[in-house]
Amino acid sequence: MDHVTTQPIRILIADDHAVVREGLQSLIAIKPDMQVVGEAKDGFEAASKARALQPDVILLDMLMPRMNGLDAICEIKTYLPDARILILTSFAEDDKVLPAIRAGALGYLLKDSSPQELIAAIRDVYHGQSALHPTIARMVIGELRQPTPAPSPVDALTEREIETIQLVAEGLSNQEIAD
């Protein structure tokens, strides 16, 4: 069942492969609540068109020429801090996924997602909700479950405490340190 909004969701598609852009355009064109307002073939063009068009949702590939997806997210977020970005890519590596989410992507789908999953993710991201491919969700949960390293005991000491320890190590007495 299609969820129809009063105004269509305005979408910018950014992918360096023309066949992907055209396929996404065709898929989105049949949805009455969605409209493609622009396309970009690289990250630089994506950032420029995002600024000019101010779309509701930006579909963004991670690996593109001239400016990669991560840099494009950062660039877009500098002048459109509320931009709703949905990553659609083939890359599920930690070094791409987590930085993209930290930089502000609301969703991260892999290109093996079904058309229905993509359409649902676009709607979720439009409404400010996250949308993650199951593989990506497992990765994010795994990352969150990893214990954070305990701070070094030295990091927990004040400057004065460190100075005192150094003076004790040099052989000074308590009285000499106190003076």
Describe the structure.
By secondary structure, this protein is α/β, with parallel strands linked by helices. The chain has two domains: 9-145, Rossmann fold (3-Layer(aba) Sandwich); 150-179, no CATH class. It contains eight helices and six strands, in the order βαβαβαβαβαβααα. A six-stranded parallel β-sheet has the order 2-1-3-4-5-6, sandwiched between helices. α5 links the parallel β5 and β6 (131-132). The termini are far apart.
- Biggest sheet features: 6 strands, parallel
Tell me the strand percentage band.
15-25%
Tally of strands? 6
Q: Determine the N-to-C terminus distance.
A: 79 Å
Widest sheet: strand ordering? 2-1-3-4-5-6
Number of domains: 2
CATH superfamily of the largest domain: Response regulator
CATH architecture of the largest domain: 3-Layer(aba) Sandwich
Question: Tell me, what is the CATH class of the largest domain?
Answer: Alpha Beta
Query: What is the 3D form?
Result: elongated
Number of helices: 8
- The helix/strand class is alpha/beta
The amount of helix comes to 40-55%
Descriptive tags:
six-stranded parallel sheet, single chain, 2 domains, Rossmann fold, elongated, 179 residues
In terms of topology, how is this protein built?
Blueprint: E1 9-14, H1 18-29, E2 34-40, H2 43-53, E3 57-60, H3 69-79, E4 85-89, H4 94-103, E5 107-110, H5 115-126, E6 131-132, H6 134-145, H7 159-169, H8 174-178
Helix pairs in contact: 2-3, 3-4
